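Quick question, first post here. What does this chain look like in 3D?
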Amino acid sequence: MDKNLDKKILAELRNAASPAQAKNLARFFKTGKGEYGEGDLFLGVTVPQQRAIVKKYWKDIGLLDLQNLISSKFHEARLTALLILVEQYQKADDLSKLAIYNFYWHNVEFINNWDLVDLSAPKIVGDFLLRQKDAKKFLRVWLKSKNLWIRRIAVLATFTCLRVGRGDETFFVAKTLLHDKHDLIHKAVGWMLRELGKRVSEKSLTEFLDNNAKQMPRVMLRYAIEKLTDKQRKFYLTLK
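> Answer (accepted):
Ran it through. Tokens below.
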């Protein structure tokens, strides 16, 4: 593994930076006082630009340099580090996968916005979850967290289970977070329920909705029913 690649990557991110884009991203990711991304700093680099940098460096950078990158004050540096981890995880042997998984949780304080979660959690935490005999044991711990982003990691991790036709984990998460207070959790749970209906069983989804639609937050419900028929959507919204 080459050393000091974190500095080279940050230099490339700075070279690609756009002040105008940085302002737009700061507004989009709610960095104002009291908002969920309060205080985050953006360089103004697009995800495709970051992926090009990832492609260039992911094979050669070690966890020590990634530690510097993932703890950066700049949002794009943290996302680039996570995208590199995803690439490394997918190519790693079991022992290296576990090391990356542990590194991910060791740095969870820096995974502090929805894009950072959504682009990394399914491929790393989700794959780990898929390998466990009792996945709910892990989900139960994460879902109790007061940290919004840890709860969202738990939700997105179930996406990997859905991709292989397993819906139990998503139902468990949805039931546990039914009365969560945060809009970003409502959206994430509704999204996973919608994917469950598409990838696993629409009948299972509608049975869940029959039992829970009345108490679901409206945003969660709207996301969950998005792919149902007009008649079904109207029915569940009327229940609400």
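Residues 120-240 form a domain with the Leucine-rich Repeat Variant fold (CATH 1.25.10.90).
The mean pLDDT is 97.
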